[in-house]
Amino acid sequence: MIKKEPGIVVGVSNRHVHLTKEDVEVLFGKGHELVPIKELGQTGQFAAEEKVTIVGPKGAIEGVRVLGPVRSKTQIEISKTDAFRLGIHPPVKDSGDIEGTPGIVIVGPKGALIKEKGVIIAKRHIHMLPKDALHYGVKDGDIVKVLCESVDRRLIFDDVLVRVSENYCLEFHVDTDEGNAALLKTGDIVWIVQE
Known about the structure:
By secondary structure, this protein is mainly β. It is built from 4 helices and 15 strands. Strands 2, 3, 4, 5, 6, 7, 8, 9 and 10 form a 9-stranded mixed sheet that branches. Strands 1-14-11-13-12-15 form a 6-stranded mixed β-barrel. Strand 3 (36-39) and strand 4 (46-55) form a beta hairpin.
């Protein structure tokens, strides 16, 4: 198995919500704008001060972080473990693809929303700039394998989507369930591999 150098930084993604401008105002009040508290790995993306509660048929999860900036569609990204707790069955999807997904109730300090769709388990993926894609010999939409070599657990993730854009930074994204399975944490290094 050949490791393609250099390694790629990991971003382990906890449950979070992306909101439209209209939904921000319903949840946090008319004219409210998200307050950035921490920049994320991808340019222009940030963790916001705002948090919400998400409510499913079997339970609720409080303190779910809102990420900014606002989007054209509201999307809720959770893990399979979260899905069990909420009592819903979201599919694994690429971010932004919310067709055929379950809905959820989102509760904020100023109001609540009943979303008919929008809950996904995000497909594991690598963000790349075009120059990175050229270096690794891949293109947008390709599927690759990624090797994780933690001290206590070696694991290969198959079926990893490559996403290429001038707006991205090189980063491998997994959710908390996947990160825990490989003993990964944000900032660790992984490698694209070929057999």
